[in-house]
Amino acid sequence: MRQSRRSFLKTSGAVAAAVLAKPRFATARADAQQGAIEPKLRQFGYGDVELLEGPMRQQFDANHAFFLGLNEDMLLKPFRQRAGQAAPGEDMGGWYDNAEEFDPHGTFHGFIPGHSFGQYLSGLARAYAVTGSKPTQAKVHRLVSAFAPTVAAKFYDGYHLPAYTYDKTSCGLIDAHEFAGDRTALDVLNAATDAVLPHLPEKALARSEQYARPHPDEAYCWDETYTLPENLFLAWRRGAGSRYRDLAVRFLEDDLYFGPLAEEQNVLPGEHAYSHVNALSSAMQAYLVLGSEKHLRAAHNGFHFLRTTQSFATGGWGPDEQFRKPGSGEIGESLKTSHSGFETPCGAYGHFKITRYLMRVTRESRYGDSMERVLYNTILGAKPLKEDGSSFYYADYNNQYAKKGCHRDKWPCCSGTFPQITADYGISSYFYDAEGIYVNLFVPSRVRWTHGDARVSLTQKTNYPYLPTTQIEISSDKASAFPVFLRIPAWAGPGTSVAVNGKRVLAGPKPGEFARVDGTWKNGDRIEVEFDMPNALEAVDPQHPDVMALLHGPLALFSVGTVPNTIGKQEFLAASQIGAGSTDWQAKTAAGKLALRPYAAIQDEIYRLYLKVDG
Questions:
Q1: Is residue 129 classed exposed, middle or buried when 0-12, 13-18 and 19+ CB atoms within 10 A define those classes?
Q2: CA-based angle 162:164:167, to the nearest 5?
Q3: 513-547 tens-digit pLDDT
């Protein structure tokens, strides 16, 4: 049966009350492998970072409770059915079911049965690593155990996207092994790999190559073999065996994607947006595992093209899930033609991954700036999942009647990436190296680690970006000397400052870099950052220079209520917050007062991101 509203709320309360303790278990196998490259920055474990009360914690708790309470028979039903086994439980609905009526130009019911199972498993495994919740770990183990006997090659007979679903399944299994201590998960992965290999092509295929081959219907041309290498490399690194490294190399799309990108050719236009951003993480794994500078260049250049030729002011990209030709004005034109501006949970998940990789390898703060923009202007404004599988999908940037809503079909791909990205919030907030700690996101949180022989924690208290400050308190069981590196965003004005225990130590730190604050830290020491957050205008693209969005620091501000046909440039720039910490801004125009809000504060009202600006 579907979970009742009452039982769902009871589960939410139980999860929220769980003790946040770093789980301890041995998952390393003797054949686990190290890559060729050690990044400059290292990532904390999921259990090292605790989100404190705030919007990110609320999103994480809601997703954790939702998937912890999801009926296991329903999750396993399409696999059991295709294996010819008894399959109790109701159908999930939407993309997830076995159903005959799928039509690539109509209903997507039955599109890719069981496609997101691995993502739900991954989200739960990561949630266990964050919280130490034993019921969550037990559910991960039960799902792996129950999934194992359903694995068979015939699952993929007549299946539209075998690589796509296998990629998600492999992610869930390696995460169950790594983060939830499931010792059987890699054996199940080996069986799942044997099952899918007869259904995969000889190499990664671009969509154009898939269309050129015989196909029963158009949907068979949408598979994403080019995203496989990231999780295959990770499987090898986590001890699944050498064939995963070999398979990862086999499916690197060097001929039509990574090769041209490495040579600074912008081959993004016309490609499916999310999957090709996701593929950049495969290029980064190729660099880390193989030491391939070509793939590092490909990831660097691909992300540069994404930011400079494809992005909206929100940091989102890919209207109608497609990259556009630079210089065509198509990004600006999409404000008139599309209500599908940015595939939000999937896009944000892929964006967070590639920015984490690039920041760790380069130690450059600009990748944190980009992550921050996507965080506050896209994913934190996503509506919660509904019990029937209705899922927030597209951010709407249309100039007419833009509004938040759910995908028309139940359980789409974004229902899978949503729990993954919210579990990743903590590990995206801080990094470290041999010297000290890097503060990337200014969010209510606590990170714990050992420096030398001192046990240290850093607690961040903030209502950033609605208040332009953050306070960081250091706790240590003994005095410890190390630098704290603070990301100073590229937009930060000259009034930005850093103080230690009330004494200013940095005035006007250089924007776009990590500011270094050295100290021999004692229990109770405080670092305070005051950000100078200016207003700025950003055009949608060079072909529409007078169609602009208003930014306040990292926040894109959306007009709500009555919106004028045009607004003066100085009127727009003079918009101000109606009170300290408020989520409402106001601009005074010739036509009257214009109300503006950040995306996370918008509920069901109609809004508009871009306005025509005079002057």
A1: buried
A2: 105
A3: 999 999 999 999 999 999 999 999 999 999 999 99
108 close to 95: Cβ distance less than 8 angstroms? yes
Rounded to 5°, angle at Cα 32 from 28 and 38: 105
In single-letter form, the type of residue at position 299 comes to A
Which amino acid would we find at residue 125?
A
pLDDT tens digits along 71-84: 999 999 999 999 99
**Strand runs labelled E in 346-444:** 394-395, 430-432, 437-439
Beta strands (DSSP E) in 542-591 are 547-552, 555-560, 566-568, 576-577, 585-589
User: What is the C-alpha R_g of the chain?
Assistant: 24
The per-residue pLDDT of the chain, averaged, comes to 94
- Please answer whether residues 391 and 377 qualify as being in contact, where contact means their C-beta atoms are separated by less than 8 angstroms: no
132: Cβ contacts below 8 Å, ≥ 6 apart: 18, 19, 20, 21, 22, 23, 47
Assess contact for 534 and 553: CB atoms under 8 A: yes
| Residue 322: both structure tokens together | 């497609």
Q: Does residue 217 contact residue 8 with C-beta atoms inside 8 Å?
A: no
* Residues forming beta bridges with residue 480, ordered by sequence position: 521
Q: Average the pLDDT over 472-486 and give the result.
A: 97
pLDDT per position as a tens digit, 442-460 = 999 999 999 999 999 999 9
Model confidence over 131-164: pLDDT tens digits? Answer: 999 999 999 999 999 999 999 999 999 999 999 9
User: Which residues, in sequence order, are bridge partners of residue 321?
Assistant: none
**DSSP notation for 238-302:** TTS-HHHHHHHHHT--IIIIIHHHHTT----TTSBHHHHHHHHHHHHHHHHHH--HHHHHHHHHH
CA separation, residue 523 to residues 429, 457, 473, 478, 520 (Å)? 22, 9, 8, 7, 10
Polymer length in residues for the chain: 615
pLDDT digit string, tens, across residues 244-299: 999 999 999 999 999 999 999 999 999 999 999 999 999 999 999 999 999 999 99
Helix (H) or strand (E) holding 598: strand 592-598
pLDDT score for 565: 87
Collapse the DSSP code of 50 into the 3-class scheme (helix H, G, I; strand E, B; otherwise coil) and give the result: strand
Question: pLDDT tens digit string along 424-438?
Answer: 999 999 999 999 999
Q: Are 419 and 388 a contacting pair, CB within 8 Å?
A: no
- CA-based end-to-end distance of the chain: 60
Sign of the Cα pseudo-torsion (528, 534, 539, 541, in order): negative
